[in-house]
Structure formats: C-alpha cells, structure tokens
Amino acid sequence: MKKKNVILIGFAGTGKSTVGKALSERLGWQFIDTDQRIEELQGISISEMFQTMGEQAFRVVESEVIDRTLKEEKQVVSTGGGAVLAELNRVRMQEGGVVVNLTASKEMIITRVSKDQSRPLVQGNVEEKVTALMESRKHAYDFADLAIDTSELTVNEIVERIAAVL
Ligand code: S3P
Fold it and tell me: Were 109 and a residue from 1, 13, 141, 159 both cysteine, which residue would form a disulfide, CB within 3.0 to 4.6 Å?
C-alpha cells in the first residue's frame, strides 16, 4: 500500500513548487520542497553544492532527503528534476505516495528556466542545455501514477485534478 503523500516530479520549470504549495493548502498537508531541505541541511545553495562538492555528492544528499521525507505522511513533496534518475529514489517515491508528473512544452520550460539562472545544470546557453537534458530524460518521468500537462491549465485546475485522484 502506498503511503499518504503526493510526490511531484517533472523537469525543471514545470511548476512543481507552485503547484505543490497550492495543493498542500488545499489538502491541509505539509509542503516539502526537497531542494530547499537539501540547502537547509548543507547550509549552502544547490549551485554552491554543485561547484564545491560536485553533482554526485548532491545526488547522495538528495537521495537521503527523499528517503527521510517519505517516511512521513500527509505531505506534498516537490522534488528536483533529476531526483528520478536514481532507481532507488523511484522505488521510494512509488511506495511513498501518489506520484504526479508535471509536464510543460519545451518553449515554456525554456522561458521559465531563463528567468531563474540559479540552476547549475542549465547555465550558459539555456535553450541548448534544456534541449539536451530533456532528450536524455525523455522517459525518466514515465513511472508516475498520473501525468498532467500544465501548459494550458491554471494552478487551481492542476490542484483539483490531483485532489480528484486521492
Ligand atoms: C535539477 C533540478 C533542480 C535541482 C538541481 C538539479 C535537475 O530542481 O534539484 O539544480 O537535475 O534537473 P528543479 O527541478 O526544482 O529546478
């Protein structure tokens, strides 16, 4: 049996944090942003972690945070776009609650990601980086219980679609 949580997965810029906050208010559950937890735990930003410790070290902390978070219930958990790359994380997510994959068009993702240059994996030529990363992660989010294309929906509509399957 799945635990009572909602886990939001999806590429950067698909609205996981925005939807997650709104959904947590709608359900009266706690909102957890794993990127934020990682930063609090390490006392530095994610881009500083990538610079000083490297991506692999970041991934280790990310897996620990996911594991620990999903031991609890009644949470809406927004995860980093690369959290699904580790099989163990995918297993924990599937056991940990209803997994929802938020998607958006590449154009929308590029527009959103360009506005926030703090993501270490999409520094420089954002369009090129996003295109390559999206291609390499084409099927990485397919294990979700539910996929929602956020491109033409309001936050409220997305929230209601998720609430309807709980
Ligand atoms: C990452 C996405 C980021 C963050 C880190 C790595 C990725 O989270 O975890 O920069 O590998 O796609 P968001 O998806 O919230 O931007």
Answer: 13
The CATH number assigned to the domain holding 95 equals 3.40.50.300
Task: State if residue 119 touches ligand 1 by the CB under 6 angstroms criterion.
Answer: yes
- Tens-place pLDDT, residues 122-140: 888 999 999 999 999 999 9
Q: Which atom of ligand 1 is nearest to the CA of 10?
A: 14
How many independent structural domains does the chain possess? 1
Any known ligand binding at 137? Answer: yes
Q: Which residues pair with 146 in a beta bridge?
A: 100
* Percentage helix, strand, coil for the chain under 3-state DSSP, each rounded to 5: 55, 15, 30
Q: Which residues contact 164 (CB under 8 A, 6 or more apart)?
A: none
Ligand 1 atom 12: residue of nearest CA: 81
Q: Which domain holds residue 119?
A: 5-164
* ipTM of model: 0.98
Q: Is the pLDDT of residue 118 over 90?
A: no
Whether 81 lines ligand 1, by a CB cut-off of 6 Å, is yes
